[in-house]
Records
---
Amino acid sequence: MKSKQPKKPLTIEQKINRRTFISLGTFVVLSGAAYGGWSWLKNSPKEIRTATAGAKAPLRRALNKTELFFRNFLSNNNLVKTYPKEMAAKVVRHNSDIGSGGTPDMANWKLEIKKQSGEVLNISLDEIKALPKTEIVFDFKCVEGWDQISYWGGVKFADFIEHFKLGDQTQLAYVGMATPDKKYYVGLDMPSAMHPQTILAYEMNAKPLMPKHGEPLRLIIPVKYGIKNLKRIGSITFNNQRPPDYWAEQGYDYYSGL
Ligand SMILES: Nc1nc2c(c(=O)[nH]1)N[C@H]1C(S)=C(S)[C@@H](COP(=O)(O)O)O[C@H]1N2
Ligand SMILES: [Mo]
């Protein structure tokens, strides 16, 4: 009878050599893949400067996918949590004042609405105050890491649109808003602008807005971070392209949703 020769076990040295070979091979393959990925990203085109800080297009596409997910998931008329008025801060925090420093030139202030056709409407504060008033108490969040429950009053953006017969403009994808001097500006996706809690506010804590909080009119958009809540609105535009956005140009997320 012939018995099978048992396989000779590998010596320690052979085992080590084998493992070294496998690790080295894996390292080489993964390094190659990493280098390939990196050079693909490096050689890919940059995005247009106005909407972003010139991020590489594939990275921006990934962010846009995330944005789309959250848009569908959160923005479809889901309401941001609100609080009783008594919970609102009496002393309201104040942040940066780009384009909204000092006091506004009220003698000349009119809200300028620029339709996509180029047609312009100039609307006075009295006309805005004559519309039905909406109030909101919500947790205002700044990307710098603070938040505060605050209380605002004004006209719902959707009501404003309806009153001034701007419904056709809401077929476009974006709204742009800027201070009278155009130094601070934000771009908003239409669903967030038309969200039922988005208001053009002229009051804080039931009193006219103070200059440092955006007198005479500011945006309150609770579905977004503070950076999008533009103080002292001078003009509003409608467009299918992303309007320029001050902080997106510095690299912040264009959507800046919560
Ligand atoms: N015109 C203008 N609006 C602005 C800003 C600004 O610098 N200029 N800063 C934004 C930021 S980052 C925040 S957190 C809020 C702060 O609003 P508040 O000063 O009323 O608290 O305003 C936003 N709107
Ligand atoms: Mo902020």
Note: The mean pLDDT is 90.
---
Amino acid sequence: MFASLIVIILGLCHCIKDSNQTFQGFPQLSGPFEALESDTVKYKCKPPALLTNESILLQLVQRDQILDEKTSVSGETGNFTLKVKPSHEGYLKCVARVRNDSNIEHSVSSAQYLKVFVPVTNATILILPDATEVFEGAMTNLLCSHNDATNVSYKWYLNGQLIPMSPSAKELSRQSTTSKDNGSYVCVATNRFNKKEYRTNSSEVIIRIKVRVSKPDIYFTVIKEDAHNYSAMVTCQSTYGTPYITFSLYNEEKLFANKTGEDRNVTFKVSVILGRNMGWFHCQASNGDRIVHSESLALRVVPVSGHVTVRFDSHLGKNYAVDSVTLFCEAENGTHPRYQWFLNNTLLDNKGRFYSVENQPPEQSLLLLSVGRSSVGTYHCNVSDSFDNTTAIGSKKLYLDEKVWNRLPDALVATVFACFTVLILLVSICCWVGVLFRRRRYGKTSLMGLEMQRTVAAYEGVLDVSQYVEDADEMTPPSGEEFDQASEASLDEWPDISAEKSFHGEPAEFP
Ligand SMILES: *[C@@H]1O[C@H](CO)[C@@H](O)[C@H](O)[C@H]1NC(C)=O
Ligand SMILES: *[C@@H]1O[C@H](CO)[C@@H](O)[C@H](O)[C@H]1NC(C)=O
Ligand SMILES: *[C@@H]1O[C@H](CO)[C@@H](O)[C@H](O)[C@H]1NC(C)=O
């Protein structure tokens, strides 16, 4: 009871004191709502009235931090200056206090928001994931990073060309890169304050889109090192792929050698023994991603040997005259033959006025001739090892002129003759059968039968067979199977033929 009395008395005393000394109302803060970073701006704070004449301390406060303070004597307005920093963004208040008297409650103005404008600077491109070399099809993202400026617009350039994108695109994202994405990137970031544009360019970033190396081809040529030693120059070659490419040559499963370079082809030297199987070789290629393999190649070098033969084919032109001739040259053995063609013992180039050479190694070489006066002469071919031209083997000589190339090929002659023989045979059989039936029929047929016979005869050759067969039906049964079938077929056709015939109304005449 006593304690509560004391509290009430104390509270009363406090009330009496306050009524003499508290501020009447609140301070009033005024000043800019936005400001450019590092500018100096001014705020004013009008203190509230105080009954006593004590000086008032005015403070510009943000988040319990005093940014500036001024003493105000006899109610004058306090002027604050503020050098704007990005951290000043937020609510500002003015607090009024009575100096040297902490018993008097301070008074606080309403809050005013300050927006700090930061000009954009220090643009740089960040790459995610952090790699300037990317394989085709991989993802890449470029981020235009800068200071903590706000309201920023972006422009992206690839090789100096503006990439059409939304101005708010801070990030340039490629889910699946292609060779078109290759090149130098720059981002430009801008923002504006009071009609002034602030701008920063990033330094360029070069993105290289790498093409995966393609499946390599493998082939080899042979060189003669000296009288007894030969080497195969084995080439591994890819048609595309961004360097550097590592090529590895394997003999069966064993690594023979590795080479890395800027070219899409490399050559390895492997010594070989002529006529011997040196095993299967294959290439592997990689430029950082997956490994690709070539086909396997049997490394075997057989020198040219045996007979070299030359033959020719004639080709008929529009008017059934021979207008071109192909000569073929083949060697019996040899994996690396080199062919040479000669006319009248003069070596022919690969292409001339009336001829061209088409090598189809290792099997053969073709000499395509358009016939005429200049192509008359004696032809032969020489075959040597491509790696050793001291081994040439010559073919027999072949003389060609219009008489030779116009001679019909034996096969054609044989075919024509065979066809002709068959034709003669068929005609003779027909005649013979015809004579036989004609003789028999006149002995036996009725008048009606004869009339029909005559009708059919008007069709002459075309219907000759059915005519005989129809008659044959009445007489002796046919013996052969073939004959039987023909008989049925012609019986089916018979009524139509007769109907058609009578429609035309040609009178049947008795001979
Ligand atoms: C307030 O106190 C300080 C020392 O604490 C003194 O220097 C100053 O003169 C005093 N001001 C008033 C108005 O009493
Ligand atoms: C190998 O590559 C080089 C350079 O790319 C090229 O000049 C050369 O012709 C190629 N060799 C073969 C055999 O293709
Ligand atoms: C080749 O020799 C024949 C005679 O054997 C001759 O008629 C022909 O004109 C010669 N051809 C060439 C191109 O020298």
Note: The longest strand covers residues 305-316.
---
Amino acid sequence: MIGRQHMGENKQDFERAQRVIPGGVNSPVRAFRAVGRTPRFIREAKGDTITDVEGNTYTDYVMSWGPLVLGHACEEVVRAVTDAARKGLSYGAPTGRETELAEEICAACPHMELVRLVNSGTEATMSAVRVARGYTGREKIVKFAGNYHGHSDGLLVKAGSGCLTGAVPDSLGVPRGYAGETLVAQYNDLPSVRELFEVNRGGIACVIVEPVAANMGVVPPEEGFLQGLRALCDQNGALLIFDEVITGFRVAYGGAAERYGVTPDLAAYGKIVGGGMPLAAYGGRQEIMSVVAPLGGVYQAGTLSGNPVATAAGLATLRILREGKEKIYPALEEKGAYLEAAFRAAGVPATRVGSILTPFFAENAPKNYAEACGCDTAAFARYFGAMLDAGQYVAPSQFEAMFVSAVHTQAHLQETASAIAAAVAAARR
Ligand SMILES: *Cc1c(COP(=O)(O)O)cnc(C)c1O
């Protein structure tokens, strides 16, 4: 590509990494295996762009997989982080900033009365499920095929043929007995949930759901789905957990709960809530969260939980979003809609909720995991390669979201729209 150096540094860095890191990466999707390319090793990023070690700059639609709704290296966030870092990296003792961040979360999400800060979305969902079990005294949980809630044992399962009585593990190393406590339902399919409640009467602690599924590509909830889950949980004495790790502060300031007007009992937040630092949160009604130690008997702890540098990034991010929300969220919506229109114009069905979207290389956009699995992933890989070569950094998998930020410029969005038209044509060849 003109003006770009190709010295092979990405390849060299990747080879070196593979000698000491499994697959050369610290999270599997980064390895670009599904698209057969060499991952870009990143040197730096600013605003809506990311630059690799060879000096290639891309318009970024991965945005660290969701946290960077304000773009890379947002001035105010970086200032908050550097100011905090100078005063100590970790204390292992409480700080006022943790309270301020918890207050921001509670004010944004009225169902959140008590919040516990943790370090990752995985921890947040795992802990919320433990609270649900501790509170209800029941052991089984319901999740949906194709919903991702991090990599804790009990949540790393998908539907097996015997899904009415328990799922099979999605990973080696997950005990079958443990996964068997997880029942798997179909997304956007209330009868599949009702059936699990009937077969396991009085045994289900909670239903955990991505209120907008975003880990099988973006699959929006159909009209009435979330309301139906709320009603089923109420009828059966189970708790409803929203995994808002992607949707929180993204699809609306108050997340999917605000956007769809459905109130969960417990919710998990991550990604945006940490402003690009390792921080996540879970919480819910006071009465339920009072089972968490030291108030109650559900144990959950963390050496770096509520870390002063991470809370500085999260707090700065949430404040900017709150103060600017009347402008920021409509703008995110508009930018998302612009890219959605570009995919549709190219003849690819695209799903979108606010600023997260996915083009599906299929006849129709999927409504659940089984339909998502029918996509033409080879066509997606060709599309991905063409986008990368055109300076567009999108997620290297059909089953991920494209993330638009508040700082994506009109000029870059227009370039991306042109690249989409060409890349879709290339994918079809
Ligand atoms: C990313 C994600 C998680 C896991 O968060 P980590 O910080 O990667 O552990 C959980 N749930 C959803 C919906 C996610 O997208």
Note: Confidence is low (pLDDT under 50) at residues 159-165.
